[in-house]
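Changelog-linked ticket: iron/sulfur cluster example.
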Amino acid sequence: MAFVDDLGAALDKTPGGGIILTSLDAVMDWSRGKSLWMMPMGTACCAMELIAASFSRFDFDRHGSIPRPDPRHCDVMVVAGTITRKMAPAVKRLYEQMPDPKWVIAMGNCAVSGGIFYYDTYSVIRGVDEFLPVDVYISGCPPRPEALQDAILRLREQVATDSIVPGRDRQLNTILPTPGSPRKGDSAAADGDDS
Amino acid sequence: MTEQTIVNIGPSHPSTHGVCRVIVTLDGETVVHAEPVIGHLHRGIEKMAENRTYLQVVPLTDRLDYVGSMYANWAYCRSVERLAGIRVPERAEYIRVIVCELQRIASHMMGIGSTGADTGATSAFMYTFAQRDHVVELFEALCGARLTYNYVRPGGVSMDLPDGWVEQCRAFTAQHPPVMMEIDRLLFGNVIARARLKGVGVLTPEDAVGWGTSGPVARGSGVDWDLRRDDPYSVYPRFDFQIPLGEIGDCYDRARVRLWECVESCKIINQALDQIEPGSVHAEGLPRLLAPRPGDAYDHIESARGSLGVYLVSDGSPRPYRMKVRSPAFCNLAVLPLLAEGHTLSDLIVIIGSLDPVFGEVDR
Ligand code: SF4
């Protein structure tokens, strides 16, 4: 993505480039959001729901989210299951192998915080966010496939506010917008709340 | 002999069914040695059990074999009941048999589906998961959870069957065997699947017994051993059912045994639904905090993967002094080096799938 990054940075500085940049952003975000391919990092029980999500009943292919076994094909890593100390280096390495831009969904209490294995055990990492930047958390032990569906749709909203200029997306995305609530930066209501 | 290469598969590889890592020594494309490396999902459940009361351990046992949570629940509860001398009401025993046979179907659906996926027919998963979803729906009506049920408790089960459940269950068992016949024709009648499965990973009956395998892996080799019949527990002696056996012990036989077991499970469920009578589903007069007398107890049941046993030691306190799980998946996985030798790398994937390991149970 180095070329796109350079292009974005250059456009950002050029007078009048902003118009092209926003159009470019819109096209990029639209295409990225509609095909969030999943890296299924299913390690334990939650993986069963992750599998169920992509077969007969729930059929995630219709959202454009296809599970791909190769990290190099994927946009979003779905960490579903307990991550132990022995497994963590492998998860980290797979995350590093994914091309930018990439997102992480922590599915299930184990991936969120360690869940039922938070206390009394010596081998479980207490939440995957100890070593990965997580974008969407799904609670539940295990969460239903519908919850994963919701997470993908939320992530799509988040992707829609990304910019190809590196660093710019960070300011926009500090709060994940919920449907119906005003988005940061595009309404006066948000400013009014602050005062 | 050419130069040997060492290839690492896993720990996160879609075809290892979990987090198994296999270090494979290859000569060309032929496997010289395959060494499974386990422990990537070691969560210390046995150790955690020592810090929980007897009732609090039940949710932990759900997470052992997460494809078949009811079995671990039941095996653990049987151990506790033996340790504390609890008598379980008959209705509860019937309900346990029904849910565990349903669980066997759900679990084998996963196993058969992945056999199809490993041989290149992902569409098999579509059929089996539709069936699995029916079972999961029944469980959801029963206890509110799709995967981790916490349903079988020491002394009985947590809740009685809800209204209309029996009819739903009968509807399921009526439509299930024809679907199995269809899968049999579609998947196991398929030329490619037969070529990939037949004669691959042959386990002789002597090795099957010698390595301590059980369940469909042993029965696929023709070892006629099923705890439901050979060490009868609960109300199983009252049912009439067959134990399907394989002939030569290859991947094809193991997968076929799973398929026929599902049909037999339907028979058992139907008989149990006929015989079940109203009554209490939980033993009366149990103390809130179980503290069995000092001693130990072992009990085992036939899970979808083989004989699953739980050994408990009590020191008289409300917490188990030690819990040890005899996990069938662990013993079944041990034969992998034996089976894989001399086959190609792509066959290794099929062999792992045919052993149907669940790593929550292997690593505990
Ligand atoms: S959150 Fe619950 S269901 Fe998911 S992996 Fe952890 S223990 Fe299993």
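Closing comment: Example verified and attached. Residues A 44-46, 81-82, 108-110, 115-116, 141-142; B 63, 148 surround iron/sulfur cluster (CB under 6 Å). The interface with chain B takes residues 40-45, 47-49, 51-52, 55-57, 67, 69, 81-82, 84, 86-87, 90-91, 94, 116-117, 119-124, 141-142, 144 of chain A (CB under 8 Å).
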